[in-house]
Amino acid sequence: DPFPLAHDDTEYYLLSKEHVSVAEFDGQPVLKVEPQALTLLAQQAFHDAAFMLRVSHQQQVASILLDPEASENDKYVALQFLRNSEIAAKGILPTCQDTGTAIIMGKKGQRVWTGGGDEAALTQGVYNTYTEDNLRYSQNAPLDMYKEVNTGTNLPAQIDLYSVDGEEYKFLCMAKGGGSANKTYLYQETKALITPAKLKNYLVEKMRTLGTAACPPYHIAFVIGGTSAEATLTTVK
């Protein structure tokens, strides 16, 4: 299973019972998923990502208001975060103006039948969200080596689908902001660097180059090693 996730305590909700059914093939249960289900899923996922934050996250922010060690400035900022979330939850103004690149990672069980065209159906969902909601278009398409133009739909989306065992179709949907993408670096060094003292100094040196171009607070991921450069960067994402 590529990129297994840790324990998932997310509270999910049912979008619809339509467009999904169970059949049987060769004595085994088969999950049949129509393209409309994938479109609906992607559309709602990116809508929620733009306008909603999880309850667990909001509780962490709210706890700052009751923290005796929090300064008045800390409490002011936390309160503004909560007020911003209240406004965004109405579905008109998104939580952040950078509504991101739509990235979808799917793990499709071997007993899941869709009839093909999964990427097209998911892409339609992304298109619907970004063109129907009040979200920014961030994707540019090259006209040639030196010129580009905004696609006006926030497409293309990045869609990576993997084959796994079972009869489930699981998705991880992310609206990845441009600041984090612009601060992604690949360094190809030698094994001589892999000692506790050298590695610590090296990482601190590289972190100092990040500056303040992305939106704080930062979440920084380090990946060391890998079968190839692209595998390392995929693991970072």
From TrEMBL:
This is Fumarate hydratase. Residues 42-237 form the Fe-S hydro-lyase tartrate dehydratase alpha-type catalytic domain. The keyword Nucleus does not apply. InterPro entries: Class-I_Fumarase/Tartrate_DH (IPR051208), Fe-S_hydro-lyase_TtdA-typ_cat (IPR004646). Keywords: 4Fe-4S, Iron, Iron-sulfur, Lyase, Metal-binding. Pfam families: Fumerase. PANTHER family: FUMARATE HYDRATASE CLASS I, AEROBIC, FUMARATE HYDRATASE-RELATED. Belongs to the class-I fumarase family. GO terms for molecular function: 4 iron, 4 sulfur cluster binding; lyase activity; metal ion binding. The keyword Acyltransferase does not apply.
